[in-house]
Amino acid sequence: MKLKSKITAICFGIVSFATTAQSKSDLKLWYNKPAAIWNEALPLGNGRLGAMVFGDPSVERLQLNEETIWAGSPNTNAHDKSIAALPVVRKLIFEGKYKEAQDLATKDIMSQTNDGMAYQTFGSVYISFNGHNDYKNYYRDLDISNATASVLYEVDGVTYKREVLTAFADQVIAVKLTASQAGKISCNVMMNSPIDKTTSFSDNNEIVMTGTGTNFEGVKGKVKFEGRLAVQNKGGKVTSKNGILSINGADEATLYISIATNFVDYKTLDENQSVKCKTYLEKALPKDFSTIKNNHVAFYQKYFNRVSLDLGSNENVKKPTDERIRDFKKEFDPQLASLYFQFGRYLLISSSQPGGQPANLQGIWNDMVSPPWDSKYTTNINAEMNYWPAEVTNLSEMHEPFIQMAKELSITGAETAKTMYNARGWVLHHNTDIWRVTAPVDQAASGMWPTGGAWVCQDLWERYLYSGDKKYLAEIYPVMKGAAQFFLDFMIQDPNTGYLVVVPSSSPENTHAAEDGKSTIASGTTMDNQLVFDLFTHVMEASKLVAPDEIFTKELSTALAKMPPMKVGKHNQLQEWQEDWDDPKDNHRHVSHLYGLFPSNQISPIKTPELFEAAKQSLIYRTDESTGWSMGWKVNLWARLLDGNHAYKLIQDQLHLVTADQRKGGGTYPNMLDAHQPFQIDGNFGCTAGIAEMLMQSQEDAIHLLPALPTVWKSGSIKGLVARGGFVIDMEWKNNKVSTLKIYSKLGGNCRLKLENTLKGDKGISLKKAKGKNSNPLFYDVEVKKPIVSKEAKLPKVQLPKYNEYDVEMKAGQTYSFFGN
């Protein structure tokens, strides 16, 4: 599927104690020509509203989204036909009849009604300027230091400027039009949409577009939406007729755009969208652009300014951003890596705000009625990847929509678990949408994967390790427990091995070698075992902390003892399946069996060296270049493998410029959005998390400083990263060694530090050599079963630098300073 754009002719966290050091001028994506296609336009968002700014002087296009405009309406796609099919499918799998099992699962277990609804565009606002096609001195940018976009150009000796923002505080899109001479702002403005059920009209001096989301796969569209546009002008005249607003001879003008829907929650559509839309607009109109911008910037910067990254800079910053992306692999441009890291944080703030919807497959930016994969939530990697940067890059509040979705899925998923599998708890397969459908969708090759709930719960648990918030843990514990209950009922003993396994399932979307090599369906895949291991162990630990239940935790412990260990195959690889089916030439985009390395912490160079080396070999076999999101995951994996140079090589591969004439292969579009292809936002978030992992890790029993620093980042600084345990890290390094370190402790407790060079504490700080287990319970360590290693495997020994480890007892609310030796 290709993304298409058509331009018509009408035309919480705590703020880091160290202030940001990153220059505002370094935090701009800028270009010397307008966007010709959607993948060149620049994204703005306030969590609820999204805008793509094209910047054409003659016809400006603002492609707009509102996060709750989806096809269809509240529904469930669960069914009970699966109950009779399930034991038959299992029997066929155990007999090695995988194709037959997969075909039957597609026929009788996959959704019998719909495969989930599509996220849809609102449409576009077009601003047409007569005679502005003959322009010069063109410039446009996206300034991620303040979340605003601007366009600047000259026509007939007059300099024209546009400023655009999606106001966080005022919940409108504001566009300010100015010129260097009075009376020069003249334009026509209109709205339209590719959704059929839309009507545009004038309402006094405003223009309005109303519509309804489409019917989709048999589900009636019931999301009603309204958009309104008004103008505040200085000088000149404004008229509105037949859905077109005309500005003639103004000195300056500010457009205010509001959008609202009737959406209340995943089961309710009874808000008055027209009243809501008018209210947003009426509250914003009395405010001038400066006021709206000041409120907007203040809101945004309280999140964005928590973290700064300085990797150095050079002459490349003087080039347009698309040229820098094009040249990144051949020219050292450290500031582009910093910009890319911060762009991911910008996108998360812009697409995921508390009280709203989580970022979907495209964040909130989509110009289609039927986008690729419906721009839903793909929960076998992509939805979770969107939130990998949330805690570590100091954007915990942005995590809240995902957590709320998990709570809602535990409700709808309980119905699916009971209806489809006669199981307790709740289930989530590989996709969901705004209506929180949880049944398996598409074909069994991709959809017969019932382990989404376990992965969602891993994310919920991680947030607790960063926050230490037991009230939060008590809140999400029932969600985690429900997911565990499902697997206790769903898992059965594999008669061929005797192990307790998840079946039917798959290693997401990858075919295995059995039969004709075209089936994915299997029993007890490595990823499933890792996910259920994490779920059960986390629920057991959470239960001790907030809901003691010895009977239930014993049930989990008993089940864990019956599950298979990880295995190392004949090619020195971590086996993806229970059978040694892995093909060293398989370079599939999913690396699902490496979940245990990242984002989990089951695979460690110290505690599980054989698995560590096997995971490395699996990753080598998979190769580097792939889809955009896959490369984003691999940055994190190579960081966990403590190989900074290889992680950096993946960043170079990811920052490969994808242009309109490149039809295959991943990378980065000119607007710095991730190319699967097509556009998916997860690669941006994955790379931002990966850069953080290169600089600091805390998944085991210590805060590991500069664990995977590439040699090219010889000197630099990072401020505001958050480690598990609630420690905020400000760090500088020189000659690849930590030089200065400041740690702010939110929660107090033991802070264990791990690094290659030695540390000296500031006056009065007691710095002790670390001994034994870390006493801080938020550094959650796990013990996995000893792996089964093939007799044909010949694993090298893990080679590690010599590390120094220190313990510092810290008090909540205090800052501690250290110096490297």
From TrEMBL:
It holds the Pfam family Glyco_hyd_65N_2. The keyword Hydrolase applies. The keyword Hydrolase applies. Residues 29-265 form the Glycosyl hydrolase family 95 N-terminal domain. Keywords: Hydrolase. Residues 697-764 form the Alpha fucosidase A-like C-terminal domain. It comes from the Bacteria. InterPro entries: 6-hairpin_glycosidase_sf, 6hp_glycosidase-like_sf, AFCA-like_C, Alpha-L-fucosidase, GH95_cat, GH95_N_dom, Glyco_hydro_b. Residues 289-695 form the Glycosyl hydrolase family 95 catalytic domain. GO terms for molecular function: alpha-L-fucosidase activity. This is Glycoside hydrolase N-terminal domain-containing protein.
